[in-house]
Amino acid sequence: MDWEQAENPPRLRKTFRFANFREALAFANRVGELAEGANHHPRLTVEWGRVTVEWWTHSAGGITEKDREMARLTDGLVE
């Protein structure tokens, strides 16, 4: 998995790049649908041409297997 591990709190982070804001926003919406379905929600930062996704489990204080699975599923949302 090519996600970086950030700290404070420990979390998985990856920035996805797109041709424009519309594509970035559409991807963020797909991540939102995935998150709602799993009842597990990431931090999303949407900017022109990119979306940064961060997964961690607040109650565990860091990264869990569920976060790793959500990261793998997020990778599958790229068109």
TrEMBL record:
Belongs to the pterin-4-alpha-carbinolamine dehydratase family. GO terms for molecular function: 4-alpha-hydroxytetrahydrobiopterin dehydratase activity. Keywords: Lyase. Signal peptide: none annotated. It comes from Thermus filiformis. InterPro entries: PCD_sf, Pterin-4-alpha-carb_dehyd, Pterin_deHydtase. One of its GO terms (biological process) is tetrahydrobiopterin biosynthetic process. It catalyses: (4aS,6R)-4a-hydroxy-L-erythro-5,6,7,8-tetrahydrobiopterin = (6R)-L-erythro-6,7-dihydrobiopterin + H2O. Its EC number is 4.2.1.96. Pfam families: Pterin_4a. This is 4a-hydroxytetrahydrobiopterin dehydratase. PANTHER family: PTERIN-4-ALPHA-CARBINOLAMINE DEHYDRATASE-RELATED.
